[in-house]
């Protein structure tokens, strides 16, 4: 189950990034930090056992784990990331994200520069 809050966070206000999104039982929570035509920055929380199903993006995707531990599978190759670690998912590669334990992440996609 995925719950999405499309309201961007308040601008010009300091924040603790790991606290802008909460965990919810049996859910993936999504909160937009910045959403523009040129790219998005999104905070996400995954409860244990939840996952993003396989997908691809026409853009490079930057993932940074801000709490817990995630499994990122890119073109069939699994990488385990702990809090503070990150990975770039190349454009046009298939990937999915798995929560073997609950975790939070920041997902960044920059759409400009691909013209």
What does this structure look like?
This protein has 115 residues and is mostly beta strands. The protein has a single domain (2-110), classed as Jelly Rolls, CATH 2.60.120.10. The protein contains no helices and nine strands. It has strands at residues 2-5, 28-36, 39-46, 51-55, 61-74, 77-82, 86-89, 95-98, 103-110. Strands 1, 2, 3, 4, 5, 6, 7, 8 and 9 form a nine-stranded mixed β-sheet that branches.
Keywords:
mainly beta, Jelly Rolls, 9 strands, 0% helix
The helix/strand order is: EEEEEEEEE
Question: Approximately what portion of the residues adopt beta-strand conformation?
Answer: over 45%
CATH superfamily: Jelly Rolls
Helix content: under 10%
Radius of gyration: 14 Å
Major sheet details:
9 strands, mixed
The number of helical segments is: 0
- Note the gap between the termini: 34 Å
The CATH top-level class label: Mainly Beta
Please state the average pLDDT score. 90
Low-confidence stretches: none
- What's the count of strands? 9
CATH topology call: Jelly Rolls
Task: Assign the CATH architecture.
Answer: Sandwich
Judging from the principal axes of the Cα atoms, what is the shape? globular
Can I get a quick summary?
With 115 residues, this protein is mostly beta strands. The chain has strands at residues 2-5, 28-36, 39-46, 51-55, 61-74, 77-82, 86-89, 95-98, 103-110. The model has no long low-confidence stretch (mean pLDDT 90).
Spell out the blueprint of helices and strands.
Elements: E1 2-5, E2 28-36, E3 39-46, E4 51-55, E5 61-74, E6 77-82, E7 86-89, E8 95-98, E9 103-110
Parallel strand pairs: 1-2
Antiparallel strand pairs: 2-3, 3-9, 4-8, 5-6, 5-7, 5-8, 5-9
